[in-house]
Design brief:
The relative contact order is 0.17. The radius of gyration is 22 Å and the shape is globular. Helix content is about 40%, strand content about 20%. The two termini are about 25 Å apart. α7 runs parallel beside α9 (about 275-290) and α8 packs across α10. It has about 400 residues and is of the alpha/beta class. It has helices at about 40-45, 50-75, 85-95, 100-110, 130-145, 155-160, 220-230, 235-250, 275-290, 295-325, 340-350, 370-380, and strands spanning about 1-5, 10-20, 30-40, 120-125, 150-155, 165, 170-175, 180-185, 190-195, 205-215, 330, 355. β1 and β2 (about 10-20) form a beta hairpin. A seven-stranded mixed beta sheet has the order 5-4-1-2-3-7-6, with helices on both faces. Strands 10-9-8-11-12 form a five-stranded mixed beta sheet, with helices on both faces. Among the domains are: about 1-155 and about 365-380, Nucleotidyltransferase, domain 5 (2-Layer Sandwich), CATH 3.30.420; about 220-310, 2-Layer Sandwich (Nucleotidyltransferase, domain 5), CATH 3.30.420.40. The structure holds 5'-O-[(R)-(carboxyoxy)(hydroxy)phosphoryl]adenosine (KG4) and zinc ion. The site of zinc ion has 6 residues, from α6.
Amino acid sequence: MRILSIETSCDETAVSLIEATGADTTPFEARVLGNALYSQIAVHAEYGGVYPNLAKREHIHNLVPMLTQCLTQADELTENAELPHAFEYIQKILDREPELFEQLKVFLETYGKPRVDCIAVTYGPGLEPALWVGINFAKALSLAWNIPIVAVNHMEGHIIISALEQHDETYSLKPISYPLLALLISGGHTELVLAEPSENNTHGVPLHYRLVGQTRDDAVGEAFDKVARLLKLPYPGGPEISRLAEIARANKLEATPMSMILPRPMIHDNSYDFSFSGLKTAVRRVVESKETFTDVELQQFAREFEDAAADVLIAKTIKAVEEFGVQTVVVGGGVSANIHIRRQLSETLKNTAELLVPQPELATDNAIMIGMAGYFHALKKEFADPNTLRAEGNLKLT
Ligand code: KG4
Ligand code: ZN
């Protein structure tokens, strides 16, 4: 089955084409035929965060170029032999995105239908104005090419991509033992989720979830980004804080002055919930009480913040692993790219559970993860009704 996938939930405009087989009677196997991603980081950097309407505008500008790039890479752009049809309806679907309609019209007049069986699109969670652009684009393509849509939960995409491994060009499923616990850490989420295998799926892909804990305020990625901003570091903050913290570790700069020591919020709390806004406030207090930071102090402080965030994430994960007898821990979401968090988790879990992490380049948002998750639902014929499909900013895993 060939799946064209579209991801526009936040500040990445991404389109990919994958070809997948199996996961029913034979093992799952997939190849990425085309993959295009436009990161809006530079656009949002000056604000230190993502602006929903700006993100929407950027998705509108970039979807057709990303689609073209993806299909070119897959060698699926052919001249249009048939007269394009249904423009009237397509225009209606893209009523609120006239610029996208104009670009898509030219595209459809120029190129024929690629070999694609369905379209997977992220419908939540995320920024609703941004999600809508991807959804409407998927609806338009589904109509133009007469193929169904699979609506994908972005967080499930992060889980599934962590459960895959790549050998040469081929992706397969890593062995999974249940119970499975997913630690989802991104710019919008901090969640602990238990997953069960799906019934009519013999290869153990999780497709049913139960939330056991979540952040009560800021997401951990958001905390990285806000703290970076307080420290006048570039957006997104995660990679930069991580880089400085690693320098501190390499230079054994652990003697943080007492005044720089940060709290580990909710670490001893009985629930599986998190809270990162107090950590951010503690950082602000330190920043306000100090005139300047030397380079070394900045490295030490970045390390202290990263240690604090990691300590809490790891303590709660271990607690859940013990209580639920977890066999496999999957880490997903942009913050799972963090080297320190990966290292600490792998060290702590080494004798208790299997740890699955995504390939670093697939940890942050991309369309490949949406296509992969979409495949498992398409296999079960779980298609969306284009008339009722809508953006769900607060979509939960179920
Ligand atoms: O999953 P993602 O790409 O987008 C959302 O769905 O939110 O995650 C983006 C988040 C940002 O907050 C970014 O700062 C964080 O992931 N991030 C990191 C690292 N790389 C990205 N945080 C910590 N360490 C990293 N290496
Ligand atoms: Zn994400």
